[in-house]
Amino acid sequence: MAEGAEGLVLVDQHVAHERVRFERIRDRLEGQGLASQALLTPVTFEAAPEEADALSRADAVLSSAGFSVSELSGRLFVVSAAPADCAAEKVVPVLRDLLGRLSETAETGGGRDAGSVSKMKDALAASLACRGAITVNRRLSPEEAARLLTDLSTCRDPWTCPHGRPILLTLAHAEVLKRFGRSSG
Ligand SMILES: [Zn+2]
Question: Which of 4, 7, 92, 94 is deepest in the core (most CB within 10 A)?
Fold first, then answer.
Protein backbone atom coordinates (compact mmCIF):
# COMPACT_ATOMS: atom_id res chain seq x y z
CA MET A 1 0.00 0.00 0.00
CA ALA A 2 1.21 3.49 -0.77
CA GLU A 3 -0.04 7.03 -0.71
CA GLY A 4 -0.63 8.75 -4.03
CA ALA A 5 -1.73 12.25 -4.97
CA GLU A 6 -5.26 11.01 -5.62
CA GLY A 7 -5.62 8.58 -2.76
CA LEU A 8 -4.63 5.13 -1.58
CA VAL A 9 -2.59 3.12 -4.08
CA LEU A 10 -2.49 -0.69 -3.96
CA VAL A 11 0.53 -2.24 -5.66
CA ASP A 12 0.85 -5.84 -6.86
CA GLN A 13 4.49 -6.33 -5.96
CA HIS A 14 5.03 -9.33 -8.22
CA VAL A 15 3.90 -7.63 -11.43
CA ALA A 16 5.60 -4.37 -10.36
CA HIS A 17 8.92 -6.21 -10.05
CA GLU A 18 8.17 -8.12 -13.24
CA ARG A 19 7.74 -4.81 -15.12
CA VAL A 20 11.03 -3.43 -13.74
CA ARG A 21 12.88 -6.63 -14.67
CA PHE A 22 11.17 -6.85 -18.06
CA GLU A 23 12.33 -3.39 -19.16
CA ARG A 24 15.91 -4.03 -17.99
CA ILE A 25 16.10 -7.43 -19.68
CA ARG A 26 14.43 -6.11 -22.83
CA ASP A 27 16.97 -3.26 -23.06
CA ARG A 28 19.85 -5.68 -22.62
CA LEU A 29 18.49 -8.02 -25.30
CA GLU A 30 18.55 -5.01 -27.63
CA GLY A 31 22.04 -3.99 -26.50
CA GLN A 32 25.00 -6.13 -25.42
CA GLY A 33 22.84 -9.13 -24.42
CA LEU A 34 22.42 -10.81 -21.03
CA ALA A 35 25.39 -12.09 -19.07
CA SER A 36 26.16 -15.66 -20.09
CA GLN A 37 27.90 -18.42 -18.18
CA ALA A 38 29.51 -21.52 -19.65
CA LEU A 39 28.16 -24.73 -18.10
CA LEU A 40 30.70 -26.91 -16.31
CA THR A 41 28.92 -29.92 -17.75
CA PRO A 42 27.03 -29.18 -20.98
CA VAL A 43 23.53 -30.66 -20.94
CA THR A 44 21.86 -32.44 -23.83
CA PHE A 45 18.16 -32.63 -24.49
CA GLU A 46 15.88 -34.10 -27.09
CA ALA A 47 13.66 -31.40 -28.57
CA ALA A 48 10.08 -31.91 -29.69
CA PRO A 49 9.54 -30.98 -33.37
CA GLU A 50 8.05 -27.56 -32.53
CA GLU A 51 10.86 -26.92 -30.03
CA ALA A 52 13.47 -27.73 -32.68
CA ASP A 53 11.66 -25.40 -35.02
CA ALA A 54 11.64 -22.56 -32.45
CA LEU A 55 15.34 -23.22 -31.76
CA SER A 56 16.31 -22.73 -35.38
CA ARG A 57 14.25 -19.57 -35.79
CA ALA A 58 15.24 -17.98 -32.51
CA ASP A 59 18.94 -18.87 -32.35
CA ALA A 60 20.09 -15.22 -32.45
CA VAL A 61 17.54 -14.13 -29.86
CA LEU A 62 18.45 -17.05 -27.57
CA SER A 63 22.14 -16.28 -27.80
CA SER A 64 21.51 -12.65 -26.85
CA ALA A 65 19.75 -14.08 -23.78
CA GLY A 66 22.97 -15.95 -22.90
CA PHE A 67 22.15 -19.41 -24.26
CA SER A 68 24.55 -21.35 -26.42
CA VAL A 69 22.70 -24.26 -28.01
CA SER A 70 23.92 -26.45 -30.84
CA GLU A 71 22.49 -29.39 -32.70
CA LEU A 72 24.16 -32.77 -32.16
CA SER A 73 22.04 -34.85 -34.49
CA GLY A 74 18.40 -34.97 -35.47
CA ARG A 75 16.55 -33.24 -32.66
CA LEU A 76 19.24 -33.85 -30.06
CA PHE A 77 20.71 -30.56 -28.82
CA VAL A 78 23.49 -29.61 -26.43
CA VAL A 79 23.41 -26.52 -24.23
CA SER A 80 26.90 -25.29 -23.37
CA ALA A 81 26.09 -21.87 -21.88
CA ALA A 82 23.08 -20.28 -20.18
CA PRO A 83 22.05 -16.94 -18.64
CA ALA A 84 24.35 -16.25 -15.66
CA ASP A 85 21.53 -16.18 -13.08
CA CYS A 86 20.11 -19.53 -14.19
CA ALA A 87 20.94 -22.47 -11.88
CA ALA A 88 22.43 -25.48 -13.73
CA GLU A 89 19.50 -27.81 -13.00
CA LYS A 90 17.09 -25.15 -14.28
CA VAL A 91 18.77 -24.67 -17.66
CA VAL A 92 16.73 -27.18 -19.64
CA PRO A 93 13.34 -26.41 -17.97
CA VAL A 94 13.90 -22.66 -18.55
CA LEU A 95 14.96 -23.22 -22.15
CA ARG A 96 11.94 -25.45 -22.83
CA ASP A 97 9.60 -22.89 -21.30
CA LEU A 98 11.13 -20.22 -23.54
CA LEU A 99 10.86 -22.41 -26.63
CA GLY A 100 7.19 -23.01 -25.84
CA ARG A 101 6.57 -19.28 -25.67
CA LEU A 102 8.61 -18.65 -28.79
CA SER A 103 6.58 -21.15 -30.77
CA GLU A 104 3.38 -19.41 -29.62
CA THR A 105 4.87 -16.17 -30.97
CA ALA A 106 5.71 -17.93 -34.21
CA GLU A 107 2.11 -19.02 -34.70
CA THR A 108 1.03 -15.40 -34.63
CA GLY A 109 3.22 -14.50 -37.60
CA GLY A 110 6.77 -15.52 -36.74
CA GLY A 111 9.59 -15.30 -39.21
CA ARG A 112 12.93 -13.63 -39.21
CA ASP A 113 11.67 -10.13 -40.00
CA ALA A 114 12.25 -7.28 -37.53
CA GLY A 115 8.68 -7.43 -36.18
CA SER A 116 8.90 -11.12 -35.30
CA VAL A 117 12.34 -10.76 -33.77
CA SER A 118 11.02 -7.96 -31.60
CA LYS A 119 8.03 -10.10 -30.54
CA MET A 120 10.35 -12.99 -29.71
CA LYS A 121 12.47 -10.67 -27.55
CA ASP A 122 9.31 -9.47 -25.78
CA ALA A 123 8.24 -13.05 -25.08
CA LEU A 124 11.71 -14.02 -23.88
CA ALA A 125 12.06 -10.96 -21.63
CA ALA A 126 8.56 -11.45 -20.17
CA SER A 127 9.32 -15.06 -19.31
CA LEU A 128 12.71 -14.33 -17.73
CA ALA A 129 11.25 -11.32 -15.88
CA CYS A 130 8.46 -13.39 -14.31
CA ARG A 131 10.85 -16.16 -13.31
CA GLY A 132 13.07 -13.96 -11.18
CA ALA A 133 10.44 -11.60 -9.79
CA ILE A 134 9.53 -11.48 -6.08
CA THR A 135 6.42 -13.44 -5.23
CA VAL A 136 3.19 -11.76 -4.24
CA ASN A 137 3.20 -13.17 -0.69
CA ARG A 138 6.72 -12.17 0.30
CA ARG A 139 6.83 -9.53 3.00
CA LEU A 140 9.05 -6.69 1.80
CA SER A 141 11.02 -4.50 4.19
CA PRO A 142 10.11 -0.78 4.00
CA GLU A 143 13.42 -0.20 2.17
CA GLU A 144 12.68 -2.92 -0.40
CA ALA A 145 9.17 -1.57 -0.96
CA ALA A 146 10.49 1.99 -1.41
CA ARG A 147 13.15 0.71 -3.79
CA LEU A 148 10.59 -1.14 -5.87
CA LEU A 149 8.38 1.97 -6.16
CA THR A 150 11.38 4.09 -7.17
CA ASP A 151 12.42 1.53 -9.80
CA LEU A 152 8.84 1.30 -11.05
CA SER A 153 8.60 5.08 -11.39
CA THR A 154 11.52 5.02 -13.85
CA CYS A 155 9.77 2.48 -16.12
CA ARG A 156 8.49 3.49 -19.54
CA ASP A 157 5.19 1.82 -18.71
CA PRO A 158 4.66 1.65 -14.93
CA TRP A 159 0.94 0.85 -15.27
CA THR A 160 0.73 -2.64 -16.72
CA CYS A 161 2.81 -5.82 -16.48
CA PRO A 162 4.29 -7.34 -19.67
CA HIS A 163 1.14 -9.48 -20.01
CA GLY A 164 -1.16 -6.48 -19.73
CA ARG A 165 -2.32 -6.87 -16.13
CA PRO A 166 -2.62 -3.71 -14.00
CA ILE A 167 0.21 -3.03 -11.53
CA LEU A 168 -1.50 -0.32 -9.49
CA LEU A 169 -5.04 0.25 -8.26
CA THR A 170 -6.02 3.64 -6.89
CA LEU A 171 -8.74 4.15 -4.31
CA ALA A 172 -9.50 7.89 -4.48
CA HIS A 173 -9.74 10.01 -1.32
CA ALA A 174 -13.30 10.97 -2.24
CA GLU A 175 -14.26 7.31 -2.62
CA VAL A 176 -12.79 6.40 0.77
CA LEU A 177 -14.66 9.29 2.44
CA LYS A 178 -17.89 8.33 0.72
CA ARG A 179 -17.61 4.74 1.87
CA PHE A 180 -17.11 5.93 5.45
CA GLY A 181 -20.27 7.99 5.09
CA ARG A 182 -18.49 11.33 5.15
CA SER A 183 -19.28 14.00 2.63
CA SER A 184 -15.98 15.87 3.11
CA GLY A 185 -12.73 15.58 5.04
ZN1 LIG B 1 4.67 -13.34 -13.30
Answer: 94
